[in-house]
Design goal:
This protein has 349 residues and is of the alpha/beta class. The protein has helices at 3-9, 23-34, 50-54, 86-100, 186-197, 222-230, 235-250, 265-272, 282-287, 329-332, and strands at residues 10-12, 16-19, 39-43, 105-106, 110-116, 121-126, 131-134, 136-139, 146-147, 161-164, 178-182, 201-205, 212-214, 216-217, 220-221, 277-279, 292-294, 297-300, 304-307, 313-315, 318-321, 325-326, 333-334, 346-348. It folds into two domains: 10-145 and 329-334, FAD/NAD(P)-binding domain (3-Layer(bba) Sandwich), CATH 3.50.50.60; 148-324, FAD/NAD(P)-binding domain (3-Layer(bba) Sandwich). The radius of gyration is 23 Å and the shape is globular. It catalyses: indole-3-pyruvate + NADPH + O2 + H(+) = (indol-3-yl)acetate + CO2 + NADP(+) + H2O.
Length: 349
C-alpha cells in the first residue's frame, strides 16, 4: 500500500487486530480480554459464525462430542445434546461473544495486511481504504473461507443444476432426481445420505482413498477413544487399534469402493491435514445400493457425466460439489520471510 496514503489515513488500534469472527476469532478475543488485552475483531460478513450460519446444510451437527468442541472459558449448556446441531452451535457462539464482551466489526473486509518494519507494526488495509495499525495480528479466518469449485470439462453445457455444498440446505428439493455428488469427505457422505432420505438417487464420486471410521464404538466417541489412547501409546499403534475396531464395526470398506490409505487416519491427519470421515449411516445405504459409489468425473455432458470407471455416459438431474473450501489468507496477508517480520508478531489459525 502507498506509504503516504497509509500514514495519512492510518489509525492505531490498541492491543490486537483479529481477522475473522468465527470460533477461533471469538476464542482468541475472549482469551485476550481475560488477560486485559483489548482486541478489534474484523469480520467481512454481516454476522459472526457466518460459515456455520449460512453455508452449512440443515442436518449438520457436530461430528465430535461437545466437550471436544467447546471454546475456552465457557462450556456448552448442560442441556445441549452430545452432538449439538448447527443452530445450537450458532446460538452457543452468540452467547459466547456476549459473555466475553466481544463485539466484532461487521462488514470489515481486509484487502491487505503487511508488516511495516519502520513502525514495528502491522498495517491492515480495509476495503474503502481505511488502514489500521496494530502491534499484533491474529489470522482467524480458518481453512473454509472460499468454496473450492473445480472446473470439469464440459461443466458449462450441463443442463441441470450445479451447486456447491455451501448452497445446499436439504435434499427435499431433489426428491426423485438422480444427483451426482462430487466428493466423499464428511460433507459428501452426509449430503448423499440426506438426499437418499428425501427420495433422491445419489451417486457419490470417490476419486481418492479415504478413511471411514465409526462415529462411536460401543457408545463412546471414536475420537475420544483415540485421544485417550494417544496419551499412552504412539500414533501408529493407536491407528492400528482404531482401524481394527473400524473393520469389525463397518466391515471391509474397500468392497464398497472406499479404499483406505496406507497411512493410518491419525498419522495422515497430522501429516497432510486430511480428516477421516465419521460414518453417520451412509455406509448402510451404500451397502443396500441406495447410494452408488462411482469413479472420478472425466467429463460433464449436457445431460450428465462420463466417469473414469465407465465408458458410457450417465445421466443426472443435478450435480452437487462436495469439494471443500480453501483459505483466502494468501490473497491478502503479505509476509516476506526475508524482511524484519518478528516471529511473534502474527499468529495464524
Amino acid at each position: 500500500m502507498d506509504k503516504e496514503e497509509q500514514e495519512g489515513r492510518a489509525t492505531w488500534v490498541p492491543g490486537a487486530v483479529i481477522v475473522g469472527a468465527g470460533p477461533s476469532g471469538l476464542a482468541a478475543a475472549a482469551c485476550l480480554a481475560a488477560r486485559g488485552v483489548p482486541a478489534t475483531v474484523l469480520e467481512r460478513s454481516d454476522s459472526l459464525a457466518f460459515t456455520w450460519r449460512h453455508r452449512m446444510y440443515d442436518r449438520l451437527a457436530l461430528h465430535l462430542p461437545k466437550r471436544f468442541c467447546e471454546l475456552p472459558l465457557l462450556p456448552f449448556p448442560a442441556e445441549y445434546p452430545t452432538y449439538p446441531c448447527k443452530d445450537q452451535f450458532v446460538a452457543y457462539m452468540e452467547a459466547y461473544a456476549a459473555a466475553a464482551g466481544v463485539a466484532p466489526r461487521f462488514g470489515a473486509s481486509v484487502e491487505e495486511a503487511a508488516f511495516d518494519a519502520s513502525a514495528a507494526a502491522w498495517a491492515v488495509r480495509l476495503a474503502g481504504g481505511e488502514v489500521l495499525m496494530t502491534r499484533w495480528l491474529v489470522v482467524a479466518t480458518g481453512e473454509n473461507a472460499e468454496p473450492h469449485v473445480p472446473d470439469f470439462p464440459g461443466m458449462q453445457q450441463f443442463a441441470g443444476r450445479v451447486l456447491h455444498t455451501c448452497e445446499y440446505k436439504c435434499g427435499e428439493e431433489f426428491a426423485g432426481e438422480k444427483v451426482l455428488v462430487v466428493g466423499c469427505g464428511n460433507s459428501g457422505m452426509e449430503v448423499s445420505l440426506d438426499l437418499c432420505r428425501h427420495g433422491a438417487k445419489p451417486s457419490m464420486v470417490v476419486r481418492n482413498t479415504v478413511h471411514v471410521l465409526p462415529k462411536e464404538m460401543l457408545g463412546v466417541s471414536t475420537f475420544g477413544i483415540a485421544m485417550a489412547l494417544l496419551k499412552w501409546l504412539p500414533v501408529q499403534l493407536v491407528d492400528r487399534f482404531i482401524l481394527a475396531a473400524a473393520r469389525l464395526t463397518l466391515g471391509n470398506t474397500s468392497r464398497l469402493g472406499l479404499r483406505r490409505p496406507k497411512t493410518g487416519p491419525i498419522e495422515l491427519k497430522n501429516l497432510t491435514g486430511r480428516t477421516p470421515v465419521l460414518d453417520v449411516g451412509t455406509l448402510d445405504h451404500i451397502k443396500s445400493g441406495k447410494i452408488k459409489v462411482v469413479g472420478a468425473v472425466k467429463e460433464v455432458t449436457r445431460v450428465g457425466a462420463r466417469l473414469a470407471d465407465g465408458k458410457e455416459e450417465q445421466q443426472f438431474d443435478a450435480i452437487i460439489l462436495a469439494t471443500g473450501y480453501r483459505s483466502n489468507v494468501p490473497s491478502w496477508l503479505k509476509v516476506n520471510i526475508n524482511n524484519n517480520n518478528p516471529s511473534d508478531a502474527t499468529k495464524k489459525d
